[in-house]
Amino acid sequence: MNKTENQKAWLFVLPVVLLVAFNAVIPLMTVVNYSVQETFGDNTFFWAGVIWFQDVLNSDRFHASLGRQMIFTFSILAIEIPLGVLIALTLPRKGPWVPVCLVLMALPLLIPYNVVGAMWNIFALPDIGLLGYGLNALGFDYNFTRQPGDAWFTLILMDVWHWTSLVVLLAYAGLVSIPDAYYQAAKIDGAKSFAIFRYIQLPKMKRVLTIAVLLRFMDSFMIYTEPFVLTGGGPGNSTTLLSVDLVKIALGQFDLGPAAAMSLIYFLIILLLSWVFYTLMMRNEAN
């Protein structure tokens, strides 16, 4: 017996498609339009072709910003993913402390981005901030407003504090979904804690860790508000990440053509690297 497909169901999806088109496709096409044109003011535009893309790709400024962005992104991934899994392993699975621990872990995620940057800016001030004053009292020459190394340390520490909770919650969700039968079988076989983690817990967390890696990669690669509020891209240009530099070009210098071309290149980099991450992690899971 053949089933008749009801194509009218697409009518329910149509409003979502239109909304996505309005919020994503139309602004994207506006950026594409600016990226291939030049303007001298008075709302007069001239065809420029791919000259802005060539200028961005050949720019030392873009390469430097991209390099800083790569260092930041892969640094926080290397810290937050293992740290989040470790914390998730220590959280209780049962009992009254479970909701308390989960709520406490979720608190940093509820704070707005600009507030996080402002909090850490005050917290890290070398004269009055608890972090800055404490490090200087211990004998460290700490000043994130003047020393690039201290600025990087503060920026990474702020992101780890803000976003490790997301990895913890995702990893914890994967851990609690593991049936008790696996642990009982491991106990009968006399498996040690590391063996249980390696052969039971880690494989069962691969899907949620894939989501965690993708989310943290995309968020960290697009981060803007926190570093801008914390350091403003300084001292000098030492913490000027790709997003911060893009805003400086678009709004500070009002170079719409180069900014639009850089935005599209930025978008393609994120899309390509996200696809690479997903492909590699899914391939490992299949193996």
Automatic annotation (TrEMBL):
Keywords: Membrane, Transmembrane, Transmembrane helix, Transport. Its main location: membrane. CDD domains: TM_PBP2. It is a multi-pass membrane protein. The keyword Glycoprotein does not apply. SUPFAM superfamilies: MetI-like (SSF161098). InterPro entries: MetI-like, MetI-like_sf, Sugar_ABC_transporter. Residues 66-277 form the ABC transmembrane type-1 domain. The chain crosses the membrane at residues 12-34, 70-91, 97-115, 160-178, 208-225, 260-281. The keyword Repeat does not apply. It is found in: Cell membrane. Belongs to the binding-protein-dependent transport system permease family. This is Sugar ABC transporter permease.
